[in-house]
Amino acid sequence: MRFARALAVSALVLAVAGCEKKQEPAAAGQQQAAAPSDTILIGHVASLTGEQATFGESTDNAIKLAIAEANANGGVKGKKLALKTYDDQGKPEEAAVAATRLIVQDKVAVLLGEVASSRSLAIAPIADTNKVPQISPTSTNPRVTKDGTKTRPYVFRVCFIDPFQGTVMAKFAHENLKLKRVAILRDVGNDYSVGLADYFSAKFKELGGEVVSDQSFKAGDQDFKAQLTAIKNKNPQLIYVPAYYTDVALIGRQARELGFKGPLAGGDGWDSAKLYEIAQGALDGSYFSNHYTHENPDPRVQNFVKKYKDTYGSVPDALAALGYDAALVAIDSMNRAKDLTGPSIRDAIEQTKGFHGVAGNITLDADHNAVKSAVVIGIEKNTPKYVTTVEP
Amino acid sequence: MTEFLQHFVNGLSVGTIYALIALGYTMVYGVLKLINFAHGDVYMVGAFSGYYLGIVGGGGEPSFFRAAYVTLGAMIACALLGFVIERFAYRPLRHRARLTALITAIGVSFLLEYGFQLSPWIRTPVQFPPGPSPRFFPPLIDFGGERSIEVLGATMPKIDLLGLGVALGLMLVLQFIVYRTRFGTAMRAVSFDPQVAGLMGIPVNRIISWTFMLGSALAAAAGIINASSRPKIEPLFGLISGLKAFVAAVLGGIGSVPGAMAGGLLLGLTEEYVAGYTDSSYRDAIAFTVLILVLLIRPAGLFGRVTVEKV
Question: Minimal Cα distance from A215: which residue of B?
Fold first, then answer.
């Protein structure tokens, strides 16, 4: 019964789309041909394997959940949604290949991803050139939605950006923890890490604190003791490590082995169950800034946590929450868009205002960034605990 | 002073890993004049063998017994791998141009690196190949209480001290094998001149096989020692370590066993001091500059002799 109705509606939509096509053949020709069937394809570029494998897995799981829910509610404009995910192994060049393939070969309506800024930066020009909207769930580097000084028309994100995130931890270290001397250990090859370290450093100095040491490493390094020994010698009260969880966990272990007793701090790149598995308690007493906490009592959040747990058997991390939000924004925008061409969906995404996501309300600003609060998570007994919320 | 000492301890711990891998390069070069570029990946396979052994019937709780069982098991597994690589990839090409063997070595290296990145065919009891995601190496030994000891203000993790001890022990055993046993004598004879050694009744093929097995077992031990201290393993982590160990072997004078040990330790310490006292992103650049300088002054490496005596 429902199927018959869906078929009728989709036939109607197709007919309407067909009429429009005749009216504006130049603008929409290519995109119309892209989705001739009764399903709308959503593309997802994710790091399902590699150094940040849990990021891709969480995001992909949550997107699947959002799409299943949308389909159960009748889909978008009478069409069913389908998801196509390609693995990029956590490498920017692979992400670019995957995005091109999704756009050119599979002709997706919307592109979701990537979680990491360096990979979103590789995808953004491709989305722009092909006029397919890209929504990144968690890429926080400001340059992702910027092309020089101008905003990339087809690139959006549903999370805050690093100038804010760096400020959050700098303020927290200075005001809540009352620290004066910090050190920084950054991954020099990573846009996310370098950006976040710079914003943290600038804000902490502005607040009157001192950055006593600023060391760097390269992703894939196994031994950080040289840098940590140099840092420890300057007696900082905290080490800021804006990097991804596999490196952070090793850094935490080696800092403790060298006898550093103070806290480490970082950003949303820490959020993974693997962090605790590798660290084995070495990061106890440390803090990181994040997008959301599953401890938030808001029924919308708890509902999502329950559904995710029932489906995948684990508590959703921030990557999952934002992947879910990114998919919801895409679906909502497609519902509001006047048709399913790239430019129309783009316009609809741009108008997103006060959208209720599980990781906060989403209003996109002129630079296509979501303005929202951040949370600080503390690590106790090798498990994450919510500490406080920081408003923008 | 404390900082200097701490860097020394750190550098020593990294340097012994380089040294153990460098020994494999240098021995194979000694007998075959072949740079076995797959050696860094044998080191990676060693760590993964330990990982699998640690998961499957790993003797339960971390203990000395478990550490010994996993280390020996991984060494045996890698010795077999070394045998297979030599038998099927290098031996058929032994009398071809040297470049052919070198390219084959690079091919074997890629085969191991990318083969291990495939998604698993076998799922139980372990996932093999492991795929590109990093794995957590299980703790093999539990010291209880404090993980580090302090000497003159420098902290030394007990696991690194144990690793250092095992590595030095293995080097002494190797020294004994090469200079005090019949096999060692035969190996040195083969490295001196394989044809004449063959005419003297030395089974050249068998000696070469054994040399590969010995080098691969040492690489496996290095893999386990490294992974116990830095428990994140993935299929590409042998690449850089292998390259640096090769540099260490050249630094010490390729073909010379004491040279590989000294080269490894020197490279580890140089890297550590460079990273500790200057901008750490110059670490590799300066370490390699040291290599160039040493080779300019002593083209045969620190312990290498320009004469034909090798191993």
Answer: B280
| The predicted structure's pLDDT at residue A10 | 55
Number of domains observed in the structure of chain A = 2
Query: A104 and A187, same structural domain?
Result: no
Q: Is residue B95 part of a domain?
A: yes
- Do residue A42 and residue A151 come from a single domain? yes
CB contact under 8 A, A226 and B283: yes
Instruction: Tell me what the mean pLDDT of segment A292-303 comes to.
Output: 91
Residues contacting B215, CB < 8 A, separation 6+: B23, B24, B25, B27, B28, B36, B39, B42, B82
Note the pLDDT of residue B95.
Answer: 87
Among A244, A43, A240, which residue's Cα sits nearest to residue A139?
A244
Average pLDDT of A364-371?
92
Whether residue A47 is found in the same domain as residue A119: yes
* Cβ-based contacts of B231 with chain A (< 8 Å): 250, 253, 278
Residue B219 confidence (pLDDT): 96
What is the model's pLDDT at position B127?
Answer: 84
Other beta carbons less than 10 A from residue B275's beta carbon: 30
ipTM: 0.86
CA–CA dist A365, A346 (Å, integer): 14
Report the alpha-carbon distance of residue A118 to residue A94 in Å, rounded: 12
| B148, B236, B277: residue with CB nearest A257 | B148
pLDDT-above-70 percentage for chain A: 91
Environment class of A277 (CB within 10 Å of its CB; exposed 0-12, middle 13-18, buried 19+): middle
Residue B156's CATH number: 1.10.3470
**Residue range(s) defining the domain that contains residue B209:** 2-297
**Which residue, chain included where needed, has tokens 């750490």?**
B280
Which residues in chain B touch residue A189, judged by CB atoms under 8 angstroms apart?
A: none
CATH number at A278 reads 3.40.50.2300
**Chain B residues close to A47, C-beta within 8 Å:** none
**Percent helix / strand / coil, chain B, rounded to 5:** 70, 5, 25
Confidence of residue A2 (pLDDT cuts 50, 70, 90): low
Residues A124 and A166 in one domain: no
- Between residues 24 and 63 of chain A, which touch chain B (CB distance below 8 Å)? 49-51, 53
Q: Report percent pLDDT > 70 for chain B.
A: 95
Count of domains observed in chain B: 1
What range defines the domain where residue A47 resides?
Answer: 2-160+297-372
- Tens of pLDDT, residue by residue over A325-343, are 999 999 999 999 999 999 9
Report the residue of A48, A52, A87, A222 to disrupt the B interface, i.e. the one with the largest count of B CBs within 10 Å. Answer: A222
Question: Is pLDDT above 50 for A26?
Answer: no
pLDDT above 70 for A28: no
